[in-house]
Design brief:
The complex is a heterodimer of chains A (700) and B (254). With 700 residues, chain A is mostly helical. Chain A contains 27 helices and 6 strands. Chain A has 2 domains: 229 residues, no CATH class; 331 residues, ABC transporter involved in vitamin B12 uptake, BtuC. In chain A, the strands form 3 sheets. Chain A has a two-stranded antiparallel sheet. In chain A, a hairpin with a 2-residue loop joins strand 4 and strand 5. Chain A starts with a helix and ends in a 34-residue tail after the last helix. Chain B has 254 residues and is of the alpha/beta class. Chain B has a single domain, classed as P-loop containing nucleotide triphosphate hydrolases (Rossmann fold, 3-Layer(aba) Sandwich), CATH 3.40.50. Chain B has a 6-stranded mixed beta sheet with strand order 6-7-8-3-9-10, sandwiched between helices. In chain B, strands 2-1-4-5 form a 4-stranded antiparallel beta sheet, covered by helices on one side. In chain B, helix 3 packs across helix 5 and helix 3 runs parallel beside helix 6. The chains are: A mainly alpha (700), B alpha/beta (254). At the A-B interface, helix 13, helix 20, helix 21, helix 22 and helix 23 of A face helix 2, helix 3, helix 4 and helix 6 of B. Bound molecules: adenosine-5'-triphosphate (ATP) and magnesium ion. The site of adenosine-5'-triphosphate has 12 residues of chain B, from strand 2 and helix 1.
């Protein structure tokens, strides 16, 4: 018992920080409608500022005030204004991508601005971090632990006072219950949600400052881990309850220390502690679904209003294109028409598809160049781009077509690569066979992920897959028979009989063939019956089951196929590099993958291929810059994220639509055969006597 | 009534402290049209969800065409021949009107498509397209066939939902307030479509509606729900004359 106590007490400070993160996440989620994954980055930025200020000789209390009460809310408000306010009612994917992008970009931006990393070990907010002040039982309590716990208790007390006793607290509770209802009472929910942003950003900043002394060096990745624990706490609070999130965070902190104390050493055991959030997410996420995640008055929306956001995208596209041949992607995502208006002459057909023509021409030139004059290291980059293109295509299928958000795609790719290498090394198979087997293993993993998450969708699904990626990183990949820890696995180049693909040009050609096969597969699925079923599932799962689609099975299948494709891509990448280590495909890569492909375009095959090539080309060109600008990619990333909220259809489709419109105008087909507008709102009945029972307008 | 197409017995469902349905029983005969009315929150939508399996009932049994269906997954019940629309519309965003109908048509056939797609670039069969065309004509939506539903007016969107529910020739249509938000002309059009389908296909209908003119035009029999209980059953005239029904709707003072 006293043993348990000894393990549990040191967990409390951790728990406090987790709880703070969880509380902040719930606060913005409920009051501002966004599950703000950039929270980890906000915490990092404030932590960094705090350490720098102290290093420059500021007293700690002043540095704390600036970092926590100044910079923290400032960043939060800017993000709210620039970004999150606009996507409040967007689809889960459109909400998720920007916050993920910022999670990655923001710390890098901060590091670039700072220009260096701090030279001093991060100090505690007050007290001396390393000194032991007294013992609780036999547990020594250091200044670090005391300062975290005391600060958390103070903040929680302040929150209780705020929520219970002040008018703005009351309003905030009301907004958390139902923004719509609150507005009906004449309260400006926008102002209240801005206040919630300020408050939660202060909390994030505080968590960031408090946590800093735990590490000898500030590192964004530690803050992402912190974020994951905070997410677990928020999920325990069912995204809705601040007290539950608080208790959940504390419990997690204590539980992970107890686990660490009792479990024996070994990969599984050491991996289990960081995977605890995964277990929590899987256990608690299904409950969050039971409760209405949204406004209880959400039902009062007239249905058409909920659709309006996407309709705007469609109208923009229709205005631009003037016609909608079957290539036109109206709202970005695999929208097909049943009767493509096939032109007669080939010339006319080509003119109708300028994007396709351009794509093939550019692609053909690129391939020709690769085979003739491109330098070896750029050829390598192009081949890497193809491998990533394949992995991106797996997301096109899973997220673009069927609307399932996956944050563990890199884990699938990694497993595919490891399995291919292991099979090739141990069974002496050609890597091509290894690649197929690797894809199959990844597909099995896809089923393993799909089955427990069948009932989740949108944000909960995304978080569950994220947790899964963590589990794979910590428990699966370190094993010798999978990813072999930090050493990694050798992945040979393939051979077919006498033909060897050791040369970079021949490997490039091989990669191209694999890409063509995968792209063909994705296209066939997208254009076929299954694509239509997937689109239906994406549109409304409820309606899909009630027209007779076995949605659960469809989800398992699409997860399996997508994971398999990612696995093939991972194997190809590994074979190109010659070896593969778990860090090549850790969970952070999964986040990057989703953000990149969403920005470039989830709506088409070309989007994924362009994403692969652009991504690797950018990485390569930025690697030649001086070290100080290493984070420039992240800055670009952040900017692209901002543009994404305006054009969720992705860069490729956006430009494609522009091009189609331009060519249409030039060739005089401008808007000629656009059907007449039929989207006028239904008229309210005028002069028609209605039976008193009709409760229109209220009841819907 | 032995020949009932749908037979629900003692369906109960509670949400926390709220009793949405209390031991409710409902029979729908082959080809019969039954109206279900009741004040807001009476449990009408919950009844639909329980019959179709979207919300599992706490107690009770459901039979369709003589078979127990209450343990079947939703999609299988639908393939047996039950089509349904939603009060809060559930359209497939981003998909065209024609695709909505085609999906429903193909889902009813229910064959595995992945291999077909991969091996011979599965296009919809001539027959499937014909069914879609004729449904579009019946609904008067042929002009809009290739528009994404996102830009339709509410009236057209409701017709798309109705059309989707009618694909695959269901034997039972469950319509949840199909006229809500429509004007009088649109409602009349809706009524004539429902009547047409009933006449030509012999489809049974369960219609939840607040608009009593529509109910009166369509149904053979009317049930009144209040607090999850069946308050009255009978012809439209009988039921509306019932004292308890008037009280439930107009309050005890009436
Ligand atoms: N998922 C749910 N969780 C909690 N309560 C629910 C849920 N669904 C329905 N209820 C409650 O059950 C009762 C019946 O609701 P239901 O939607 O079936 O009523 P209705 O007759 O369709 O009303 P309306 O005419 O407004 O559509 C209501 O009190 C409602 O609040
Ligand atoms: Mg209802």
């Amino acid at each position: 018992m006293s043993q348990l106590f000894n393990y549990a007490v040191p967990g409390i400070p951790f728990g406090c920080v987790f709880a703070l993160m969880g509380v902040g996440l719930v606060l913005t989620y409920k009051a501002a409608g966004v599950f703000n994954l950039a929270f980890g980055a906000q915490a990092f930025v404030s932590g960094l500022a705090f350490v720098f200020l102290v290093q420059d000789g500021w007293p700690r209390w002043a540095a704390g005030i600036i970092a926590i009460l100044g910079l923290g809310p400032l960043v939060g408000l800017v993000l709210d204004r620039l970004l999150f306010r606009r996507i409040r009612t967007a689809s889960p994917l459109v909400k998720l991508v920007p916050s993920l992008g910022l999670l990655i970009a923001l710390p890098q931006v901060a590091l670039i601005i700072a220009g260096s990393t701090p030279q001093i070990p991060p100090p505690a907010l007050f007290l001396d971090a390393q000194t032991v002040y007294f013992h609780l039982g036999s547990v020594p309590l250091s200044g670090l632990e005391l300062s975290i716990t005391v600060a958390t208790v103070l903040v929680v007390a302040a929150l209780v006072v705020l929520f219970r006793l002040t008018p703005v607290g009351l309003e905030m509770r009301a907004v958390v219950e139902s923004p719509r209802l609150t507005e009906l009472f004449g309260i400006n929910a926008g102002r209240v949600s801005a206040f919630a942003w300020v408050l939660s950003s202060c909390i994030a900043a505080l968590a960031g400052v408090l946590l800093a002394p735990l590490y000898s060096q500030l590192n964004p990745e530690d803050y992402t881990v912190l974020l994951v624990w905070g997410i677990a706490a928020a999920v325990i609070g069912r995204f809705a309850s601040l007290p539950l999130a608080l208790v959940g965070g504390l419990g997690l902190g204590v539980a992970q220390q107890i686990l660490a104390g009792y479990l024996p050493a070994g990969i599984i055991a050491t991996g289990l502690r960081p995977s605890l959030p995964f277990v929590v997410l899987l256990v608690f996420l299904p409950f969050s679904r039971q409760r209405q995640l949204d406004d209880p008055l959400a039902d009062c929306d007239p249905p058409i209003a909920a659709l309006a956001g996407e309709a705007r995208g469609y109208r923009a596209a229709a205005t631009l294109t003037g016609d909608r041949g079957d290539e036109t992607v109206a709202v970005g995502l695999w929208h097909r028409t049943l009767h493509p208006d096939g032109g007669t002459s080939i010339g006319r057909r080509l003119l109708q598809r300028p994007t396709a023509v351009l794509g093939w021409v550019v692609g053909g030139l690129a391939v020709l160049s690769a085979l003739t004059w491109v330098s070896p290291d750029w050829l390598l980059t192009m081949t890497q781009g193809i491998a990533f293109g394949i992995i991106f295509l797996s997301l096109t299928l899973l997220t673009g077509m069927s609307g399932q958000i996956s944050l563990c795609q890199a884990s699938f790719a990694g497993l595919g690569g490891f399995a291919a290498g292991q099979f090739a090394n141990h069974l002496d198979l050609s890597l091509l066979a290894g690649m197929v087997l690797g894809g199959a293993m990844a597909a099995v993993l896809g089923v393993v992920v799909a089955l427990p998450t069948l009932r989740l969708a949108g944000l909960p699904l995304a978080l569950a897959t994220l947790a899964f990626a963590l589990l794979a990183d910590n428990i699966l990949f370190p094993n010798g028979w999978v990813g072999n820890g930090a050493t990694g696995v050798l992945v040979p180049r393939p051979e077919i009989g006498p033909i060897s693909f050791n040369a970079s040009r021949s490997f490039f050609l091989l990669a191209l063939v694999v890409l063509a096969l995968v792209a063909g597969l994705v296209k066939l699925i997208g254009d076929g019956t299954m694509g239509r079923f997937l689109a239906a599932m994406r549109g409304s799962e409820v309606a899909a089951v009630s027209v007779g689609i076995d949605v659960h099975r469809l989800r398992v299948v699409v997860f399996a196929v997508s994971a398999g494709l990612a696995g093939v891509g991972g194997a190809l990448y590994g074979s190109l590099q010659g070896s593969l280590a778990p860090n090549d495909f850790n969970y952070q890569i999964s986040l990057v993958l989703l953000v990149v492909v969403a920005i470039v375009g989830l709506g088409s095959i070309s989007g994924a291929v362009v994403a692969g090539v652009v991504y690797t080309a950018l990485l390569k060109s930025l690697s030649t810059l001086p070290a100080r600008y290493a984070g420039l990619l992240a800055v670009l990333f952040g900017l692209a994220t901002l543009s994404y909220t305006r054009h969720p259809e992705g860069v490729v489709d956006y430009l494609g639509n522009r091009l189609v419109g331009l060519v249409g105008r030039l060739t005089g087909r401008w808007r000629d055969d656009l059907p007449p507008r039929t989207d006028a709102p239904a008229h309210p009945p005028t002069g028609v006597e209605r039976v008193p029972m009709a409760a229109d307008g209220v009841d819907r | 009534m032995t020949g009932a197409l749908l037979r629900a017995r003692d369906i109960s469902r509670r949400f926390g402290g709220i009793t949405a349905l209390a031991e409710l029983s409902l029979d729908v005969g082959e080809g019969e049209a039954v109206g279900v009315v009741g004040p807001n929150g009476a449990g009408k939508t919950t009844l639909f969800n329980c019959l179709l399996g979207l919300t599992p009932p706490d107690t009770g049994t459901v039979e369709f065409d003589g078979r127990r269906i209450d343990r079947m997954p939703v999609w299988r019940r639908s393939r047996l021949g039950i089509g349904r629309t939603y009060q809060r519309m559930e359209l497939f965003r981003g998909m065209t009107v024609a695709d909505h109908l085609l999906v429903a048509e193909q889902a009813h056939a229910g064959t595995v498509r992945l291999w077909g797609d991969l091996l011979h670039h599965a296009r919809p069969s001539r027959e499937e397209l014909d069914h879609v065309e004729s449904a579009l004509r019946l609904l008067g939506l042929d002009e809009l066939a290739d528009r994404p539903v996102d830009v339709l007016s509410l009236g057209h969107a409701r017709l798309v939902e109705l059309g989707r529910a009618m694909m695959g020739r269901p034997r039972l249509l469950m319509l949840d307030e199909p006229s809500s938000g429509l004007d009088a002309a649109e409602t009349a059009r809706l009524a004539s479509i429902i009547t047409d389908v009933r006449r030509s296909e012999g489809t049974a209908v369960v219609l939840v509606e607040h608009d009593l003119t529509l109910v009166g035009d369509v149904v053979d029999r009317l049930c009144v729900l209040d607090f999850g209980r069946m308050l009255a059953v009978g012809s439209v005239g009988e039921v509306m004359a019932d004292e308890r029904v008037r009280q439930a709707y107009l309050g005890s003072g009436a």
